Amino acid sequence: RWFSLPYHKRPTLPATLYDIARGALLASRIARSQGLDVLHARGHVSAAMGLLAKRSSGGRLIFDIRGFMPEEYVDAGLWPSGGVLYRWTKAVERRLLAGADGFVVLTERARQILFPDSSDTDPHGRPIEVIPCCVDLERFEDAAAVSREEVRKHLGLSGRRVYVYVGALGGWYLTEEMARFLAAAHAQDASSFTMVLTQSPPEMIAAPLQKLSLTKSDYFIRQVPPREVPRYLKAADVAVSFIKPCFSKLSSSPTKIAEYLAAGLPVICNTGVGDLDEIIEADRIGVLIREFSLQAYQEAQEALLEMLRDDRLSDRCRGAARRRFDLKDVGGPRYQRLYRRLFQAEDRRLVPSEALP
Protein backbone atom coordinates (compact mmCIF):
# COMPACT_ATOMS: atom_id res chain seq x y z
CA ARG A 1 0.00 0.00 0.00
CA TRP A 2 1.31 3.46 -0.95
CA PHE A 3 0.99 6.60 1.17
CA SER A 4 1.84 9.80 -0.68
CA LEU A 5 2.58 13.38 0.28
CA PRO A 6 3.00 16.39 -2.06
CA TYR A 7 6.58 17.40 -2.88
CA HIS A 8 7.66 21.01 -2.37
CA LYS A 9 10.59 22.40 -4.37
CA ARG A 10 10.99 26.06 -3.42
CA PRO A 11 12.42 27.76 -1.48
CA THR A 12 14.94 24.94 -1.44
CA LEU A 13 15.96 24.54 2.20
CA PRO A 14 12.65 25.48 3.90
CA ALA A 15 10.71 23.31 1.45
CA THR A 16 12.97 20.31 2.06
CA LEU A 17 12.79 20.74 5.84
CA TYR A 18 9.01 20.96 5.64
CA ASP A 19 8.81 17.79 3.52
CA ILE A 20 11.14 15.94 5.92
CA ALA A 21 9.01 16.93 8.92
CA ARG A 22 5.76 15.88 7.25
CA GLY A 23 7.28 12.65 5.99
CA ALA A 24 8.68 11.81 9.43
CA LEU A 25 5.30 12.37 11.07
CA LEU A 26 3.53 10.16 8.55
CA ALA A 27 6.19 7.42 8.75
CA SER A 28 6.06 7.47 12.53
CA ARG A 29 2.29 7.20 12.55
CA ILE A 30 2.31 4.29 10.08
CA ALA A 31 5.09 2.50 11.97
CA ARG A 32 3.23 2.73 15.30
CA SER A 33 -0.20 1.84 13.91
CA GLN A 34 1.07 -1.21 11.99
CA GLY A 35 3.78 -2.33 14.40
CA LEU A 36 6.62 -2.03 11.90
CA ASP A 37 10.08 -3.15 12.98
CA VAL A 38 12.11 -1.72 10.07
CA LEU A 39 12.08 1.61 8.26
CA HIS A 40 13.79 1.28 4.88
CA ALA A 41 14.76 4.66 3.42
CA ARG A 42 16.07 5.10 -0.11
CA GLY A 43 18.18 8.24 -0.37
CA HIS A 44 19.18 11.04 1.96
CA VAL A 45 15.90 12.94 2.26
CA SER A 46 13.82 9.86 2.99
CA ALA A 47 16.50 8.64 5.41
CA ALA A 48 16.21 11.92 7.33
CA MET A 49 12.47 11.23 7.60
CA GLY A 50 13.23 7.69 8.74
CA LEU A 51 15.73 8.76 11.36
CA LEU A 52 13.24 11.16 12.95
CA ALA A 53 10.51 8.53 12.76
CA LYS A 54 12.81 6.01 14.40
CA ARG A 55 13.24 8.30 17.38
CA SER A 56 9.50 8.50 17.98
CA SER A 57 8.38 5.02 16.95
CA GLY A 58 11.43 2.85 17.61
CA GLY A 59 12.57 0.04 15.35
CA ARG A 60 15.50 -0.19 12.97
CA LEU A 61 16.52 2.07 10.09
CA ILE A 62 18.09 0.92 6.82
CA PHE A 63 19.85 3.75 4.99
CA ASP A 64 19.73 2.73 1.32
CA ILE A 65 22.35 5.09 -0.10
CA ARG A 66 21.54 5.78 -3.73
CA GLY A 67 24.48 8.11 -4.26
CA PHE A 68 26.73 10.74 -2.73
CA MET A 69 23.99 13.36 -2.69
CA PRO A 70 25.95 16.42 -1.44
CA GLU A 71 28.78 15.79 -3.90
CA GLU A 72 26.32 15.16 -6.74
CA TYR A 73 24.89 18.65 -6.35
CA VAL A 74 28.39 20.14 -6.29
CA ASP A 75 29.60 18.09 -9.28
CA ALA A 76 26.48 19.13 -11.19
CA GLY A 77 27.31 22.78 -10.55
CA LEU A 78 24.12 23.36 -8.56
CA TRP A 79 25.85 24.03 -5.22
CA PRO A 80 29.22 25.62 -4.49
CA SER A 81 31.66 23.35 -2.72
CA GLY A 82 31.70 24.38 0.93
CA GLY A 83 28.49 26.40 0.58
CA VAL A 84 25.71 26.47 3.17
CA LEU A 85 23.54 23.83 1.50
CA TYR A 86 26.50 21.53 0.98
CA ARG A 87 27.70 21.84 4.57
CA TRP A 88 24.19 21.39 5.96
CA THR A 89 23.58 18.28 3.86
CA LYS A 90 26.94 16.79 4.86
CA ALA A 91 26.06 17.36 8.51
CA VAL A 92 22.75 15.55 8.00
CA GLU A 93 24.57 12.75 6.18
CA ARG A 94 26.89 12.26 9.16
CA ARG A 95 23.88 11.93 11.45
CA LEU A 96 22.30 9.42 9.10
CA LEU A 97 25.47 7.31 8.97
CA ALA A 98 25.68 7.43 12.77
CA GLY A 99 22.00 6.69 13.40
CA ALA A 100 21.13 3.99 10.88
CA ASP A 101 21.19 0.29 11.75
CA GLY A 102 22.06 -1.11 8.32
CA PHE A 103 23.23 0.17 4.95
CA VAL A 104 22.94 -0.41 1.21
CA VAL A 105 25.40 1.05 -1.28
CA LEU A 106 25.40 0.59 -5.04
CA THR A 107 29.12 -0.01 -5.59
CA GLU A 108 32.16 -1.48 -3.91
CA ARG A 109 33.91 1.85 -4.35
CA ALA A 110 31.15 3.59 -2.41
CA ARG A 111 31.51 1.04 0.38
CA GLN A 112 35.26 1.63 0.53
CA ILE A 113 34.77 5.41 0.70
CA LEU A 114 31.98 5.45 3.29
CA PHE A 115 33.14 2.47 5.35
CA PRO A 116 36.91 2.17 4.91
CA ASP A 117 38.48 -1.05 6.19
CA SER A 118 35.02 -2.63 6.47
CA SER A 119 33.57 -5.54 4.51
CA ASP A 120 30.04 -6.74 5.25
CA THR A 121 29.77 -4.90 8.57
CA ASP A 122 31.00 -1.54 9.85
CA PRO A 123 33.13 -1.19 13.03
CA HIS A 124 29.91 -1.15 15.11
CA GLY A 125 28.72 -4.45 13.67
CA ARG A 126 26.02 -2.90 11.50
CA PRO A 127 25.39 -4.82 8.24
CA ILE A 128 26.42 -3.39 4.85
CA GLU A 129 25.28 -4.77 1.51
CA VAL A 130 26.53 -3.76 -1.92
CA ILE A 131 23.50 -4.03 -4.21
CA PRO A 132 23.95 -2.59 -7.71
CA CYS A 133 21.06 -1.46 -9.89
CA CYS A 134 19.72 -4.73 -11.26
CA VAL A 135 17.65 -5.82 -14.23
CA ASP A 136 14.86 -8.34 -14.73
CA LEU A 137 16.54 -10.84 -17.05
CA GLU A 138 13.23 -12.45 -17.95
CA ARG A 139 12.40 -9.36 -20.04
CA PHE A 140 15.45 -10.08 -22.17
CA GLU A 141 14.90 -13.83 -22.30
CA ASP A 142 11.48 -13.17 -23.83
CA ALA A 143 13.17 -11.17 -26.59
CA ALA A 144 15.47 -14.12 -27.32
CA ALA A 145 12.60 -15.85 -29.13
CA VAL A 146 12.63 -13.13 -31.78
CA SER A 147 15.05 -13.47 -34.70
CA ARG A 148 17.79 -10.85 -34.59
CA GLU A 149 17.84 -10.60 -38.37
CA GLU A 150 14.08 -10.10 -38.48
CA VAL A 151 14.34 -7.24 -35.99
CA ARG A 152 17.18 -5.64 -37.94
CA LYS A 153 15.30 -5.99 -41.21
CA HIS A 154 12.16 -4.50 -39.67
CA LEU A 155 14.18 -1.51 -38.42
CA GLY A 156 16.05 -1.10 -41.70
CA LEU A 157 19.40 -2.01 -40.16
CA SER A 158 20.48 -5.03 -42.21
CA GLY A 159 24.17 -4.87 -43.05
CA ARG A 160 24.90 -2.08 -40.57
CA ARG A 161 27.11 -2.09 -37.46
CA VAL A 162 24.69 -0.66 -34.93
CA TYR A 163 25.73 1.42 -31.93
CA VAL A 164 22.97 1.93 -29.37
CA TYR A 165 22.46 4.35 -26.52
CA VAL A 166 19.54 4.06 -24.08
CA GLY A 167 18.55 6.70 -21.55
CA ALA A 168 18.51 10.38 -20.77
CA LEU A 169 20.67 12.98 -22.52
CA GLY A 170 22.50 15.95 -20.99
CA GLY A 171 23.42 16.56 -17.38
CA TRP A 172 25.58 13.70 -16.13
CA TYR A 173 25.32 12.05 -19.55
CA LEU A 174 28.01 13.46 -21.81
CA THR A 175 26.01 13.94 -24.99
CA GLU A 176 28.60 16.02 -26.87
CA GLU A 177 31.42 13.58 -26.10
CA MET A 178 29.24 10.63 -27.10
CA ALA A 179 28.37 12.33 -30.39
CA ARG A 180 32.06 12.85 -31.15
CA PHE A 181 32.79 9.22 -30.41
CA LEU A 182 29.94 8.08 -32.66
CA ALA A 183 31.10 10.39 -35.44
CA ALA A 184 34.57 8.83 -35.18
CA ALA A 185 33.00 5.37 -35.44
CA HIS A 186 31.07 6.37 -38.56
CA ALA A 187 34.20 7.88 -40.10
CA GLN A 188 36.14 4.67 -39.43
CA ASP A 189 33.41 2.34 -40.73
CA ALA A 190 30.85 3.61 -43.25
CA SER A 191 28.45 0.79 -42.32
CA SER A 192 28.02 2.21 -38.81
CA PHE A 193 24.57 3.24 -37.64
CA THR A 194 23.55 5.01 -34.40
CA MET A 195 20.35 4.12 -32.57
CA VAL A 196 19.31 6.36 -29.66
CA LEU A 197 16.39 5.40 -27.42
CA THR A 198 15.57 8.30 -25.14
CA GLN A 199 12.78 10.32 -23.55
CA SER A 200 14.90 13.46 -23.80
CA PRO A 201 14.29 15.97 -26.62
CA PRO A 202 15.70 14.39 -29.82
CA GLU A 203 17.51 17.58 -30.84
CA MET A 204 19.85 17.19 -27.86
CA ILE A 205 21.70 14.43 -29.74
CA ALA A 206 20.54 15.12 -33.31
CA ALA A 207 22.11 18.59 -33.39
CA PRO A 208 25.65 17.51 -32.40
CA LEU A 209 25.48 14.47 -34.71
CA GLN A 210 24.48 16.64 -37.67
CA LYS A 211 27.14 19.18 -36.77
CA LEU A 212 29.66 16.35 -37.05
CA SER A 213 28.44 15.54 -40.59
CA LEU A 214 26.14 12.61 -39.84
CA THR A 215 22.99 12.55 -41.95
CA LYS A 216 19.54 11.25 -41.07
CA SER A 217 20.38 8.02 -42.90
CA ASP A 218 23.12 7.42 -40.30
CA TYR A 219 20.95 7.39 -37.17
CA PHE A 220 17.50 7.39 -35.66
CA ILE A 221 16.25 8.70 -32.32
CA ARG A 222 13.13 7.18 -30.82
CA GLN A 223 11.13 7.06 -27.64
CA VAL A 224 9.98 3.49 -26.99
CA PRO A 225 8.12 1.93 -24.06
CA PRO A 226 10.32 -0.05 -21.63
CA ARG A 227 8.83 -3.37 -22.74
CA GLU A 228 10.16 -2.72 -26.26
CA VAL A 229 13.75 -1.89 -25.22
CA PRO A 230 15.01 -5.53 -25.23
CA ARG A 231 13.76 -5.99 -28.80
CA TYR A 232 15.56 -2.86 -30.01
CA LEU A 233 18.74 -3.86 -28.19
CA LYS A 234 18.61 -7.20 -30.00
CA ALA A 235 19.23 -5.31 -33.24
CA ALA A 236 22.42 -3.65 -31.95
CA ASP A 237 26.06 -4.72 -32.01
CA VAL A 238 27.62 -2.36 -29.47
CA ALA A 239 26.26 -0.28 -26.58
CA VAL A 240 27.56 3.12 -25.50
CA SER A 241 27.56 4.98 -22.17
CA PHE A 242 29.39 8.25 -21.49
CA ILE A 243 28.89 9.59 -17.96
CA LYS A 244 30.68 12.51 -16.33
CA PRO A 245 33.63 11.06 -14.39
CA CYS A 246 33.65 12.78 -11.00
CA PHE A 247 33.79 11.87 -7.33
CA SER A 248 30.03 11.52 -6.87
CA LYS A 249 29.76 9.06 -9.76
CA LEU A 250 31.96 6.56 -7.90
CA SER A 251 28.75 5.67 -6.07
CA SER A 252 26.73 5.13 -9.27
CA SER A 253 25.53 1.90 -10.83
CA PRO A 254 23.99 2.78 -14.21
CA THR A 255 20.98 0.58 -14.95
CA LYS A 256 21.65 0.93 -18.68
CA ILE A 257 24.86 -1.08 -18.32
CA ALA A 258 22.96 -4.01 -16.81
CA GLU A 259 20.42 -3.80 -19.65
CA TYR A 260 23.12 -3.71 -22.30
CA LEU A 261 24.83 -6.79 -20.88
CA ALA A 262 21.54 -8.65 -20.46
CA ALA A 263 21.03 -8.13 -24.21
CA GLY A 264 24.47 -9.65 -24.88
CA LEU A 265 26.02 -6.35 -25.98
CA PRO A 266 29.61 -5.31 -25.30
CA VAL A 267 29.90 -1.86 -23.74
CA ILE A 268 32.02 1.13 -24.66
CA CYS A 269 32.15 3.57 -21.75
CA ASN A 270 34.47 6.01 -20.05
CA THR A 271 36.39 5.28 -16.88
CA GLY A 272 35.64 6.66 -13.42
CA VAL A 273 32.04 5.54 -12.94
CA GLY A 274 31.20 3.20 -10.07
CA ASP A 275 32.72 -0.27 -10.36
CA LEU A 276 32.56 -0.36 -14.15
CA ASP A 277 36.33 -0.14 -14.72
CA GLU A 278 36.94 -3.32 -12.75
CA ILE A 279 33.88 -5.16 -14.09
CA ILE A 280 34.50 -4.47 -17.77
CA GLU A 281 38.19 -5.35 -17.64
CA ALA A 282 37.78 -8.42 -15.42
CA ASP A 283 34.92 -9.91 -17.44
CA ARG A 284 36.27 -8.79 -20.86
CA ILE A 285 32.88 -7.40 -21.89
CA GLY A 286 33.77 -4.05 -23.38
CA VAL A 287 36.24 -1.26 -23.95
CA LEU A 288 37.13 1.58 -21.56
CA ILE A 289 37.83 5.09 -22.81
CA ARG A 290 40.33 6.84 -20.55
CA GLU A 291 40.24 10.26 -22.19
CA PHE A 292 37.87 12.14 -24.46
CA SER A 293 40.02 12.52 -27.56
CA LEU A 294 39.90 11.44 -31.19
CA GLN A 295 42.92 9.19 -30.69
CA ALA A 296 41.26 7.46 -27.72
CA TYR A 297 38.07 6.96 -29.75
CA GLN A 298 39.99 5.45 -32.65
CA GLU A 299 41.92 3.13 -30.33
CA ALA A 300 38.65 2.07 -28.71
CA GLN A 301 37.25 1.23 -32.14
CA GLU A 302 40.26 -0.93 -32.95
CA ALA A 303 39.96 -2.76 -29.63
CA LEU A 304 36.24 -3.21 -30.22
CA LEU A 305 36.74 -4.73 -33.68
CA GLU A 306 39.14 -7.25 -32.22
CA MET A 307 36.68 -8.08 -29.43
CA LEU A 308 33.77 -8.55 -31.85
CA ARG A 309 35.67 -11.37 -33.55
CA ASP A 310 35.19 -13.47 -30.40
CA ASP A 311 32.15 -15.73 -30.88
CA ARG A 312 31.80 -16.08 -27.09
CA LEU A 313 31.49 -12.34 -26.46
CA SER A 314 27.68 -12.18 -26.26
CA ASP A 315 27.59 -15.16 -23.90
CA ARG A 316 30.18 -13.48 -21.68
CA CYS A 317 28.08 -10.31 -21.56
CA ARG A 318 24.94 -12.23 -20.62
CA GLY A 319 26.90 -14.21 -18.06
CA ALA A 320 28.18 -11.01 -16.47
CA ALA A 321 24.61 -9.66 -16.29
CA ARG A 322 23.46 -12.88 -14.63
CA ARG A 323 26.27 -12.95 -12.05
CA ARG A 324 26.33 -9.26 -11.22
CA PHE A 325 23.00 -7.60 -12.03
CA ASP A 326 20.21 -10.19 -11.99
CA LEU A 327 17.21 -8.89 -10.03
CA LYS A 328 16.16 -12.40 -9.05
CA ASP A 329 19.50 -13.95 -8.11
CA VAL A 330 21.51 -10.89 -7.02
CA GLY A 331 19.37 -7.92 -5.99
CA GLY A 332 16.55 -9.76 -4.23
CA PRO A 333 18.72 -12.21 -2.25
CA ARG A 334 21.06 -9.44 -1.07
CA TYR A 335 18.15 -7.41 0.27
CA GLN A 336 16.82 -10.52 1.99
CA ARG A 337 20.25 -11.17 3.48
CA LEU A 338 20.43 -7.61 4.80
CA TYR A 339 17.08 -7.96 6.56
CA ARG A 340 18.04 -11.37 7.94
CA ARG A 341 21.34 -10.03 9.29
CA LEU A 342 19.56 -7.04 10.75
CA PHE A 343 17.29 -9.29 12.80
CA GLN A 344 19.60 -12.20 13.56
CA ALA A 345 22.91 -10.58 14.53
CA GLU A 346 23.11 -11.43 18.21
CA ASP A 347 25.74 -8.88 19.03
CA ARG A 348 23.91 -6.06 17.26
CA ARG A 349 22.44 -3.29 19.33
CA LEU A 350 20.10 -0.50 18.29
CA VAL A 351 21.54 2.97 18.15
CA PRO A 352 20.24 4.58 21.38
CA SER A 353 17.55 7.18 20.94
CA GLU A 354 19.56 9.80 22.80
CA ALA A 355 22.16 9.67 20.01
CA LEU A 356 19.58 10.74 17.45
CA PRO A 357 19.02 14.37 16.47
Polypeptide structure, described:
By secondary structure, this protein is an alpha/beta fold. It folds into 2 domains: 12-132 and 328-346, Glycogen Phosphorylase B (Rossmann fold, 3-Layer(aba) Sandwich); 137-325, Rossmann fold (3-Layer(aba) Sandwich). It is 48% helix and 13% strand. The protein has 15 helices and 10 strands. It has helices at residues 12-34, 44-57, 69-75, 84-99, 108-114, 137-143, 148-155, 175-188, 203-211, 229-234, 255-262, 276-283, 294-308, 313-325, 327-344; strands spanning 38-42, 60-64, 102-105, 128-130, 161-166, 192-197, 219-222, 238-241, 267-270, 286-289. The strands form 2 sheets. A 6-stranded parallel β-sheet has the order 7-6-5-8-9-10, with helices on both faces. The protein has a 4-stranded parallel β-sheet with strand order 1-2-3-4, sandwiched between helices. The protein is globular and about 65 Å long. The two termini are 29 Å apart.
Layout of strands and helices, then pairs:
Layout: H1 12-34, E1 38-42, H2 44-57, E2 60-64, H3 69-75, H4 84-99, E3 102-105, H5 108-114, E4 128-130, H6 137-143, H7 148-155, E5 161-166, H8 175-188, E6 192-197, H9 203-211, E7 219-222, H10 229-234, E8 238-241, H11 255-262, E9 267-270, H12 276-283, E10 286-289, H13 294-308, H14 313-325, H15 327-344
